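User: Sequence recovery, please. Input:
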């Protein structure tokens, strides 16, 4: 841009709520507490939450991330991620003499309790979720092998090798799209004569609130930037919701360095949101980058106020 030429105006709408949810804060706090209590290194099985900036920050403080507990020395301190794990994982750590703290999100733990209860009641469990996602793997790992099925579409429900009279129960990955889950639940209830659901919604409040905020902003803006990782389920769902509800240009970026500026050249109103595992500093960095190219007017648009908090994990 030519020096002295005025920057083009850009109205920036910050979706609220956005960013860290209570479960993410609790999990990150657990690692930091363990580092203060025991000193480094503290080992963490898999990404504590799905955000590389968070992982790198904790590594700088002395956390060591591993794939499996077999990589952790006997007697070491281990934190298990917010996504939840199969039952055998925690037991394996304790059998190795490791000091294991499970930072599972309480809302994911609630899903675990629900599928166990339904299984004990003699029902086949149908889990609405993404095959291979850590939360899905952890939920399936609460039950004997083969006791549950994973579906991600109404079509997948029709393909289940179950008689329509089979007593079934369904559960939902906490970060799943609320709209897509509703369609799959309808397919389950239409196919099976005896189907039960969870006590209340399995989709967490943060997922629901962030998707609702995006849904309301999408038709109002020329473009939307979703701050989050491509391997984050809730980040991907936010981008999908924005596109589905009318935003003509949507990009999911890990940070400001990944923004495709060519997609914003004709934009006059841009919305920004962030996944439940994305630190607010990432959003601030994107706003600062926008301010370097546009004459920005920033406005926060609150959809709903969040007051949820969880008790800290006891690290002792």
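Assistant: Recovered sequence (316 residues):
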């Amino acid at each position: 841009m030519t020096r002295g030429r005025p920057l083009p105006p850009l109205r920036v709408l910050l979706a609220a709520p956005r960013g860290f949810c209570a479960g993410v804060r609790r999990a990150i706090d657990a690692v930091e507490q363990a580092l203060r209590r025991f000193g480094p290194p503290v080992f963490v099985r898999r990404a504590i939450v799905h955000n590389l900036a968070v992982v790198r920050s904790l590594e700088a403080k002395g956390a060591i991330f591993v794939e499996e507990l077999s990589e952790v020395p006997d007697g070491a301190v281990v934190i298990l991620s917010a996504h939840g794990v199969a039952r055998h994982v925690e037991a394996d750590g304790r059998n190795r003499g490791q000091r294991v703290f499970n930072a599972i999100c309480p809302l994911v733990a609630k899903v675990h309790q629900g599928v166990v209860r339904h299984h004990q009641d003699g029902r086949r469990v149908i889990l609405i979720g993404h095959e291979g996602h850590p939360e899905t793997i952890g939920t399936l790992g609460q039950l004997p092998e083969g006791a549950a099925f994973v579906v991600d579409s109404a079509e997948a429900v029709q393909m289940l090798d179950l008689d329509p009279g089979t007593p079934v129960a369904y559960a939902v990955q906490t970060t799943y799209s609320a709209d897509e889950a509703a369609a799959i639940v309808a397919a389950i209830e239409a196919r099976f004569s005896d189907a039960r659901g969870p006590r209340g919604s399995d989709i967490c409040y943060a997922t629901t609130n962030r998707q609702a905020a995006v849904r309301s902003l999408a038709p109002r803006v020329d473009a939307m930037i979703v701050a989050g990782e491509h391997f984050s389920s809730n980040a991907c769902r936010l981008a999908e919701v924005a596109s589905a509800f009318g935003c003509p240009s949507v990009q999911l970026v890990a940070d400001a360095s990944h923004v495709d500026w060519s997609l914003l050249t004709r934009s006059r109103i841009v919305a920004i949101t962030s996944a439940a595992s994305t630190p607010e500093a990432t959003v601030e960095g994107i706003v600062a980058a926008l301010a370097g190219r546009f004459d920005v007017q920033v406005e926060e648009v609150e959809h709903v106020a969040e007051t949820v908090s969880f008790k800290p994990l006891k690290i002792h």
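The chain has a mean pLDDT of 96.
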